[in-house]
């Protein structure tokens, strides 16, 4: 049975401050021409969607202030310590979140990464004055790279050393290019170059991961598992929008921290489960889909003729393996920091029944909210729902999606070889 809860008051959230331009993955409608997908759009009746108290959690946990004490919330919710609240602004960039979520321990590369990421804050300074700060960021990163280069190289997995060294060379050249951009006072060229060199940093860090770092518990070991990362492109046909016709959302799925959840999703993608499916919820809080036609609220495995479910899966900092089947609150881990937090606009997670932790199946949602003030683990979503990826391109346009818009396709563009036990190969 789908979760139900009281109607909530209208709330205001901090969405992205500026809408990014439509790039090659999103296409504008031509003036005077309206192109539609064939077939009718239909509004689903109430009850089929697992709303899984997401709106409730958002209203109570993601904004400061009061709100009625709904029964679904624990009577004594964890109160974050003051030291957590003042520890600094949360990381909101999906690329940075993914870099920090890699299972590596190499301080020198993190010392390179941080000042390059800080360029984003430097660019908040008006005009070309920002370039002086950008230059300091780049020079600091360059010094850290030179001082820690031997330890960075030593951190590469043996099979990835050649690739890692190649990326170091590209990173060094990229930082020199950035200094030239600063010298030429080309402010508009900074952000694209920053994105490029941070991709090199991310690649260097991924080359430090030597295989999958732990054993999945035996009871889940035969399920589809993503032992690493995969990237998918989700193409959505958008209706009733004069400015946007369709859009491709690039999503990075993190199997290091959620192998069962991410593996289940990739397996469904390869079955084309989501192709042709409508967006089924878009309420300003989340965008959600994955409820198939018929009475079942999840994917029916043809080999068992039953709904396939996945356990709640939460990885926290300092742990080598995820917790399964319990929320962090139920485990009493009130101070634990999740590896994949609900910080970024476009955070992707598995929907589930409100009071059934292990009821996730095929319904997924994307958060339409950035964490401006609330640190990780201080809201009611972190540690209660399994995050398994982030939208890394065109995430801002998630807010344009409406109920009835159609997912034309989801395709794996890289990382499919990290999927083990793929059930789609056994049953079509």
Distance between the termini: 28 Å
- Annotation field: number of helices: 10
| Oligomerization category of the chains in this entry | single chain
Order of helices and strands: EHHHHHHHHEEEHEEEEEEHEEEEE
The averaged pLDDT comes out at: 83
Output the structural class: alpha+beta
Sequence stretches where pLDDT stays below 50 over 5 or more residues: 1-24, 28-49, 59-87
Helix content: 25-40%
Q: How much strand content do the residues show?
A: 5-15%
Radius of gyration: 22 Å
Structure overview:
There is one protein chain. This protein is α+β, with helices and mostly antiparallel strands and 428 residues long. The chain has helices at 54-61, 82-85, 94-100, 107-117, 119-122, 130-154, 161-183, 190-206, 259-270, 328-331; strands at residues 26-27, 225-226, 229-237, 246-254, 281-282, 286-289, 300-301, 306-307, 313-314, 323-324, 347-350, 364-367, 387-393, 406-414, 419-420. The two termini are 28 Å apart. Residues 1-24, 28-49 and 59-87 have low confidence and may be disordered.
List the topology elements.
Elements: E1 26-27, H1 54-61, H2 82-85, H3 94-100, H4 107-117, H5 119-122, H6 130-154, H7 161-183, H8 190-206, E2 225-226, E3 229-237, E4 246-254, H9 259-270, E5 281-282, E6 286-289, E7 300-301, E8 306-307, E9 313-314, E10 323-324, H10 328-331, E11 347-350, E12 364-367, E13 387-393, E14 406-414, E15 419-420
Antiparallel strand pairs: 1-4, 2-15, 3-4, 3-14, 4-13, 5-6, 6-12, 7-8, 9-10, 11-12, 11-13
Helix pairs in contact: 4-6, 4-8, 6-7, 7-8
């Amino acid at each position: 049975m789908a979760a139900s809860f009281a109607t909530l008051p209208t709330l205001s959230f901090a969405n992205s401050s500026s809408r990014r331009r439509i790039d090659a993955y999103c296409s504008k409608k031509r003036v005077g021409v309206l192109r539609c997908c064939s077939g009718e759009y239909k509004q689903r009746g109430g009850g089929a969607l697992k709303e899984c108290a997401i709106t409730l959690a958002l209203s109570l946990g993601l904004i400061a202030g009061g709100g009625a004490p709904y029964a679904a919330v624990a009577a004594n919710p964890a109160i974050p310590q003051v030291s957590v609240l003042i520890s600094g602004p949360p990381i909101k960039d999906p690329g940075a979140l993914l870099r920090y979520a890699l299972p590596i321990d190499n301080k020198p590369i993190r010392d390179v990464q941080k000042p390059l990421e800080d360029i984003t804050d430097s660019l908040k300074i008006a005009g070309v004055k920002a370039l002086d700060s950008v230059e300091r960021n780049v020079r600091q990163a360059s010094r850290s790279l030179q001082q820690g280069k031997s330890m960075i190289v030593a951190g590469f997995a043996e099979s990835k050393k050649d690739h890692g060294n190649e990326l170091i060379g590209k990173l060094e050249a990229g930082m020199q290019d950035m200094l030239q951009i600063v010298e030429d006072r080309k402010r508009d060229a900074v952000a694209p170059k920053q994105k490029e060199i941070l991709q090199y940093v991310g690649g260097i860090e991924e080359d430090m991961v030597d295989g999958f770092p732990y054993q999945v518990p035996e009871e889940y070991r035969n399920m589809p598992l993503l032992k690493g990362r995969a990237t998918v492109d989700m193409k959505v046909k958008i209706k009733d929008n004069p400015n946007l016709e369709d859009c491709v959302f690039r999503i990075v799925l993190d199997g290091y921290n959620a192998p069962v959840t991410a593996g289940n999703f990739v397996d469904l993608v390869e079955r084309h489960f989501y192709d042709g499916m409508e967006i089924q919820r878009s309420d300003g809080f989340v965008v959600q889909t994955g409820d198939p036609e018929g009475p079942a609220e999840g994917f029916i495995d043809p080999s068992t003729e039953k709904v396939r479910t996945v356990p709640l899966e939460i990885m926290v900092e300092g742990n080598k393996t995820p917790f399964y089947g319990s929320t962090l609150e139920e485990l009493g881990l009130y101070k634990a920091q999740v590896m994949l937090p609900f910080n970024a606009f476009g955070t992707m997670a598995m929907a589930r029944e409100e009071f059934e932790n292990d009821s996730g199946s095929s319904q997924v949602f994307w958060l339409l909210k950035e964490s401006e003030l609330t640190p990780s683990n201080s809201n009611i979503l972190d540690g209660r729902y399994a995050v398994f990826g982030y939208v890394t391109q065109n995430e801002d346009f998630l807010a344009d999606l409406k109920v009835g818009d159609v997912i034309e396709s989801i395709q794996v563009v890289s990382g499919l070889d990290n999927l083990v036990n793929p059930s789609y190969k056994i049953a079509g």
